Amino acid sequence: MTLEHSRAARLAARASGRNESELERRLSDTSVTVSVDPNLPGGLDAARILVETLRRQPLQLHLDEAGLPEQWVAETGMACAAIDDSRPLVVGRANGLAVHIGVEERASLRVIPDGYGARLRRTGGLRQSRAANGLGAMFTAALAAAELFKDAAEVLPTRQVRQQRLDFCPVTLSGDLESAPELASTTLEVGLVGVGAVGTATARILGTLPLTGRVLLIDPEQYALENLGTYSLGTRIDAETGRSKVALATDALENFNAVPFAGRVEDALGLIDSGQLPWPRVVLSGLDSVAARHATQSLWPDELIDAASGDTALGIHEARDGGACMMCFFPLRADGASALTRLVDATHLTPAQLADGDRLLAEEDLDDLDEEHRELLRPHIGIAVCGLAKAIDLTVGGDDRYLPSVPFVSQQAASLGVGRLVARLLGVEALPNLVQYDALLGPQTLTALNVPPVAACHSVTNREVIDAVRQTRRRLAAPA
Ligand SMILES: [Zn+2]
Description:
Elements: H1 3-16, H2 20-29, E1 31-36, H3 43-55, E2 60-63, H4 70-83, E3 90-91, E4 97-101, E5 109-114, E6 117-121, H5 134-152, E7 165-168, E8 186-193, H6 197-206, E9 211-218, H7 236-240, H8 245-252, E10 257-261, H9 265-273, E11 282-285, H10 290-297, E12 303-310, E13 313-320, H11 326-329, H12 339-347, H13 351-355, H14 371-377, H15 386-392, H16 407-425, E14 434-438, E15 447-449, H17 458-461, H18 463-477
Parallel strand pairs: 1-2, 1-4, 2-3, 4-5, 8-9, 8-11, 9-10, 11-12
Antiparallel strand pairs: 5-6, 6-7, 12-13, 13-14, 14-15
The structure holds zinc ion (ZN).
């Protein structure tokens, strides 16, 4: 067992409720065949991400080459070998699990990218309403990988929803894949803070959208072997040579003028205020500590979208002028509230109802709740209550225990983050500033809230100072 797969197995074991060696064996014994209709717009892009994502797990991976361009098959094989040359991509079909990216019934699980989102079917008709873009391709690959993982790992039925039919758009946060308009070519002054499991997926999506301008990349770390199993970018050679993570993101963002800063966001602040680094007006972050989120808020951009994943949960927090900021979303926990206390707060269930994690949430549990909390919990009936914390506790990223995720979780977090950016560029208003769900339950169970600023919000009480800082940065950023 290689180092990076052992790490992936540990993460996957927690997600599936099985022990690590048993799960490792299950995954290693599972064959997955991917097929794709090359004429489906966006199909090959989704297939490429899916195959690479699956190669980061210890599965036996097969590619059905029927109908595919020879060169594409060769390039995809090379991309897999660069990630893990001990488990080559096998060309041809195998018995076992199968997924088809296309509308034809070539596998029991079918997915297609559609616009910014994805459609998934196990039975019934499937139709693409419009050409897909890079966000749709990433989201489709992530949903497919999640379904394959549930089967390969035999995730306990009480911890998952096995999707039969799902349509979801990460821009509109609904099953409506047709209403978000096409994105016109747009120039941005953007920042990407944190190039980890989420950040690499974010970079990969941004690199495919019709966006241009300048991107400031901030991350102090170098790519390492343990990142191979959890990131959406990077090869074994990148790990062995210790490439900086900002260099990896730079490669994925050819459409931008990239300014890589291989340091901490705390250290970038001074350089921005002295005009040595550009001031990003829009920031996408993917971070693993509360302190780093607070420092990122101190960039004081117009718009900050923080995407996070932890274990199998994922979500976004969006900070805009006048709304809740990162200090509101992620308070330093002086009160030491326990996970159970927070869950009682969030759900209004009693500690007794939540005490036994294996107990399934029942219709009767909702009897004493108000309508709002009934709505919140209804999608979770029949699912073990231990999953509620991940789905509803709203603290993904809010504690500093490092709980990295399998890639399909981080990819869905990144999809929500970029989806929100797209929504704002399209002028979509009235969106919740907090969105969260558990990747094993699916986006149809998402929790969406409008969180107001806390009473003593840092960004409200320090309004004048922040305005002065923003004024200075705006002046520095003005063309000479
Ligand atoms: Zn605040």
